[in-house]
Amino acid sequence: MSSAGPDARADYRDVVSPAEAGRLVRAALARSAGPARPSEAVPLASAAGRVLAAAVVAAEDVPGFKRSTVDGYAVRAPDTFGAGEGAPVLLTVVGRVAMGRAADLRLGPGQTAAVPTGGMLPEPADAVVMVEHTVPAGEDLVEVLRPVAPGENVVRPGEDVARGTEVLPAGRRLGPADLGVLAALGVTEVACHPRPKVAVIPTGDEIVPAGTSRLAPGQVRDITSAAVAAHVTGDGGEPTVFDVVPDNPELLERTLEAAVDRFDLVLALGGSSVGARDNTAAAIDKLGPPGVLFHGLALKPGKPTIFGLAGGRGVPVFGLPGHPVSALVVYRLLVRPALRRLGGELAPGWRTAAEEQGTALEAFLPARLTTAVSSDQGRDEYLCVRLVWSDGRLWAEPVHGKSGLITMLARADGLVRIPAGRRGLDAGENVEVVLL
Amino acid sequence: MSSAGPDARADYRDVVSPAEAGRLVRAALARSAGPARPSEAVPLASAAGRVLAAAVVAAEDVPGFKRSTVDGYAVRAPDTFGAGEGAPVLLTVVGRVAMGRAADLRLGPGQTAAVPTGGMLPEPADAVVMVEHTVPAGEDLVEVLRPVAPGENVVRPGEDVARGTEVLPAGRRLGPADLGVLAALGVTEVACHPRPKVAVIPTGDEIVPAGTSRLAPGQVRDITSAAVAAHVTGDGGEPTVFDVVPDNPELLERTLEAAVDRFDLVLALGGSSVGARDNTAAAIDKLGPPGVLFHGLALKPGKPTIFGLAGGRGVPVFGLPGHPVSALVVYRLLVRPALRRLGGELAPGWRTAAEEQGTALEAFLPARLTTAVSSDQGRDEYLCVRLVWSDGRLWAEPVHGKSGLITMLARADGLVRIPAGRRGLDAGENVEVVLL
């Protein structure tokens, strides 16, 4: 541990704004060699959340046949021209198409066949009259009350997806709807990027493993590793939680050196002391170049954040703040996008375009603040809030407390950003709550 | 399959609004016997996303010792009274507390000890002077420039969490921060509700399994099961996808009968035909009472939705629309909250209070609509949109198309709700986009 004398309170070396930090991280990732592991073949049933290593191209037309979009009668459109309520066209019903079967009949002039929604049109039918626009007229006859244009109520072969079309791009993180798309195309297995391996390294003389049943005086259990590891898994990474590293510069350097050799991303979790933070920065620098790229974030909470590239492959290393709430705020803001990029995800265009202009797009719930809060003008601040429904609307109640380690984690439902330049927020003010 | 004649177009029996449907589902779940399986002991590392079966109560005080929140000097507060820049108080430094260790010294009057952030205070110190407010004054002496009040810069034992406090309530779905809370308390294993078992039953004469490599004319692969199963997993359920059931009333009834015996929730996925839908409703009724509780939703897309309770235990059964986009809209709106409730989750108070007043709270991104869209006034409508970043803001572009099965699934980024009563939305109008 560091001494508590004034000399120990090292200044943060290169304090940057969160937007600038985001740019530095993105630029560093573009420069870093990154993982060179081959893609994996993943069966569809376990592909949710995985990232496509190659675009998926349709190997066949969808649909593969002329398909009705309504319950009705398949017709040659010209046969219905001129039909009206007062002047119905009489057609001969020569059959009925069974659902899921080939339409094993042919229509001659003036002939029609009943067809269900989703059913195949017999040749040479090119349109379907909705059943609502027909009247049965004795055995095997039907009156058509409205004309249909060619193609009406029909999906042509390949109209949904034509063979050869790129349906899902490389870099797409597969959601439930994407699995439906793959199923529709008969794809049973997809090439996916390997999950990034993430080292989660708790540090600090006072930190003992979470599983420690009885604490000695002065000890604190490792809170942050469990929370960060759960986030890493949720964001598509494979976390490995290391043994706690004491505040010993050589030991930390050796641990980081081994980690950047075997992992794609390294997260060093700070203890409470200033010394631990300095050790992390020094170790990253020794393992460079380039070493530390920024040291200190103009963000509250989250100031004691470090980022750099280390090891021969230029593996990204974050030093996260010791306070668990701070660590989780910085995780969301900087680590999550970095991890997703390391996993091969190419964010959709709207998201990257917004990011490049410094706008983070996060879905939020609008609420009103219950009480005024003050804030530093000089930096962005994130306020932990608890949500309350009252008087028919949503309220955000600030969760404070110096003692906040656990209470804040357990009570906060979301975060409200107070931009740099504002002195605080007013009671009753409309705020945007990003859910935790 | 049903005939395509007018008689086959059965009216929806009991069309309800989405809000009324939500109330009916919630009331039915409260009435249903539900799963009576015992809770499971889940290790912390795999508890993310699981639901607590019992409240977690702190077994110890946190912190367990008087803890400094700053780097500085532990003092008996009265020793600093009267200190000022011009009149510093001189204290004798009798030691230094090591991080993570017991403070193995005692302060006499006029004595102090250096203590790091997070370090333990020696007895009988009751406050810490920040290092910034001190000046070293030769060996073993320090000048204090400001007084501190008792308790200043100190977290008392139990101040964060007192022993016996309920820290996390039963019914809480554990997020990453909650795992941190459990780790802090030394909890290594928690009692969780079992995951609900969900039967996913594709139906329809035209539907063939997703794995089918070559389609015969008239056939369509099962798109919806893969998408729904992925959602079920994400919402904490254990999906089992059944073999496709053809449009045969007896077969469907037998399948549902077996499913309600072994599963906690049954999702019957409609084919394209009206007949399949009617079969589902008839089977649920036969397996009641109460059988079908509503049949038809005043919602676009999503009208052909059925809900009821079936089997001796009153297992909830949804009949979902055959169109995959419709099925996914209804899943989000009705199935997801039902599944989460079946998993034992008690939504936070703000969410349930809002739900009871008919307000669904979903986080959204604000965007502008690129083009005007029209809609039915009589029912809620959900518009699939693609997001585009342009001119420094987010735009929502409607994704249309009768052919929409796959294209819509692959292209839509989110949904925009057009409330019943509106004739449509204007070009340039501000909309709330819920991400898919």
Structural notes for this entry:
- The structure is a homodimer of 436-residue chains.
- Chain A has four domains: 6-37 and 194-352, Molybdenum Cofactor Biosythetic Enzyme, Chain A (3-Layer(aba) Sandwich), CATH 3.40.980; 40-62 and 161-192, Molybdopterin biosynthesis moea protein, domain 2 (Alpha-Beta Complex), CATH 3.90.105.10; 67-155, Molybdopterin biosynthesis moea protein, domain 3 (Molybdopterin biosynthesis moeA protein, domain 3, Beta Complex); 365-435, Beta-clip (Beta Barrel).
- The first copy, chain A, is α/β, with parallel strands linked by helices and 436 residues long.
- Chain A has helices spanning 18-31, 176-184, 224-234, 249-262, 274-286, 324-342, 349-356, 405-411, and strands at residues 40-43, 56-57, 67-68, 72-75, 89-96, 111-115, 127-130, 134-136, 141-144, 154-155, 166-168, 189-192, 197-202, 207-208, 220-221, 238-241, 265-269, 291-295, 299-300, 306-310, 315-320, 365-369, 373-374, 380-390, 393-398, 414-418, 424-425, 430-435.
- In chain A, helix 4 (249-262) packs across helix 5 (274-286).
- The radius of gyration of chain A is 31 Å and the shape is elongated.
- The first copy, chain A, starts with 17 loop residues before the first helix and ends with a strand.
- Chain A contains eight helices and 28 strands.
- At the A-B interface, helix 2, strand 14, strand 15, helix 3 and helix 7 of A face helix 2, strand 14, strand 15, helix 3 and helix 7 of B.
Main CATH class of the largest domain in chain A = Alpha Beta
* CATH H level, superfamily name of the largest domain in chain A: MoaB/Mog-like domain
Write down the oligomeric state.
homodimer
Radius of gyration of chain A: 31 Å
Largest interface: A-B, 127 and 126 residues
**CATH fold-level name of the largest domain in chain A:** Molybdenum Cofactor Biosythetic Enzyme, Chain A
| Total beta strands of chain A | 28
Biggest β-sheet of chain A, characterized? 6 strands, mixed
Strand content of chain A: 25-35%
**Portion in helices of chain A:** 10-25%
How many domains would you count in the coordinates of chain A? Answer: 4
Count of runs of 4 or more consecutive helical residues of chain A: 8
Structural class of chain A: alpha/beta
Beginning-to-end CA distance, first to last residue of chain A: 33 Å
CATH architecture of the largest domain in chain A: 3-Layer(aba) Sandwich
Uncertain runs of chain A with pLDDT below 50, 5 residues or more? 1-10
Instruction: Write down the overall geometry of chain A.
Output: elongated
Mean pLDDT of chain A: 91
Strand line-up in the sheet with most strands of chain A: 7-4-6-5-9-8
